[in-house]
Design goal:
TIM Barrel; 10 strands; about 15% strand; globular; alpha/beta; eight-stranded parallel sheet; two-stranded parallel ribbon; about 375 residues
């Protein structure tokens, strides 16, 4: 085994330990059935990563309400019709020696109207997205549906869930002082805007088993978010100790903050410097090589989330035992991606990413 800290096990307060510091990032892949049931293609994609050595294998964002669907072919966790596929998936991930986690998601105003068949919902009316404000009872229902989705994931055999509080989706919309214009207890002050996150965490802790692993993904910039508020939220959550980890989505682990007042040091440093108690801290953002991953740990992170490099190599953690490993150069062929377990729909989705998939003239 490599002497690198990347290959040291990492325990959580709740749930099984990760055998290494590599977590599969939750990656949109469009491969589920239209009703949110797991497909064979998505099963193959995820279980190959578990078999490829990831310490924790996370699903793509799985929506907790039908109206919260964010993209076609999204995995669902909003009904018992999803249990069969989720149970199959959890068993296979765990059989490969990987911790099995569902990411719980609701797109809010970013749910396409033509996909969900009605106007999307948001903390407040939003003309740009044609979204309507959630009523008070609907906010309570949303909180309840996140909690019920966690219970459903537990019933399916998953080790834990991660709340998607990043990237301008519904929880991030509540956190944003620009998007959230509510005047009730879920709007106004930073404390009020974060209330929904705290209440979902408390509900999951009350209704799932004591050793159920619970994480939260946050992004500290864009989508109307303020770095100082997200930093303070992360600090408060770490102090409370109800989470097992926070996953910071940074776009690039090396970058400085966008807000001028915070520039002169890395965005990551505002989170790695926080006292975290027993809560683990992970970072995501262009972690492409073992050198990148080790740099994140050296800067104070406990683990790394691997996204694009995991699409390119299902066994990235095994390949990363060689500190000089570099992932395949872009663009890659469709054949390469198929060999790495991507189904046809996922391959075409990656083809929409500029420069990721080689075009016919490039492989002629």
């Amino acid at each position: 085994m490599s002497a690198s800290p990347l290959f040291q096990p990492m325990t959580f307060v709740r749930g099984p330990a990760m055998k290494n510091r590599f977590m599969l990032a939750p990656l949109t892949n469009l491969q589920s059935h239209p009703d949110g049931r797991l497909s064979d293609d998505e099963f193959k994609w995820l279980t190959m990563r578990a078999q490829g050595g990831f310490g924790l294998t996370m699903t793509c964002a799985a929506h907790v309400q039908a109206i919260g669907q964010g993209f076609p072919g999204q995995l669902g966790v909003f009904g018992d019709q999803h249990l069969e596929g989720l149970t199959r998936l959890a068993a296979a991930i765990k059989a490969a020696g990987s911790v099995a986690v569902v990411q719980l998601h609701h797109a809010g105003m970013r749910s396409p109207k033509d996909l969900i068949g009605e106007a999307p919902v948001c903390p407040s009316d939003d003309a740009e997205f044609g979204a309507r404000a959630l009523t008070g009872p609907e906010v309570a229902q949303l909180i309840g549906d996140f909690i019920t989705a966690a219970e459903r994931s537990e019933k399916a055999g998953f080790d834990g869930v991660e709340l998607h509080g990043a990237h301008g989706y519904v929880l991030s919309q509540f956190l944003s002082p620009e998007v959230n214009q509510r005047t009730d207890q879920y709007g106004g002050s930073a404390e009020n805007r974060a209330r929904i996150v705290h209440e979902i965490i408390d509900g999951i802790r009350a209704r799932c088993r004591p050793d159920f692993n619970l994480g939260l993904r946050l992004s500290p910039e864009r989508f109307g978010l303020r770095l100082a508020e997200i930093r303070d939220l992360a600090r408060d959550l770490m102090a409370q100790g109800k989470l097992d980890y926070i996953d910071m989505s940074l776009w690039d682990y090396r970058k400085e903050p966008m807000e001028e007042a915070f520039q002169g040091r890395t965005l990551m440093s505002y989170f790695t410097e926080l006292p975290r108690g027993d809560v683990r801290l992970g970072v995501a953002g262009k972690v492409m090589t073992p050198v990148d991953a080790e740099a994140c740990l050296a800067a104070g992170a406990d683990f790394v989330l691997i996204g694009r490099a995991a699409i390119l190599h299902h066994d990235f953690p095994k390949l990363a035992a060689d500190p000089d490993f570099r992932p395949a150069s872009l663009p890659v062929t469709r054949e390469h991606l198929r060999a790495e377990g991507l189904g046809p729909t996922f391959v075409e989705y990656m083809n929409s990413w500029k420069g990721f998939v080689a075009q016919p003239e490039e492989v002629a």
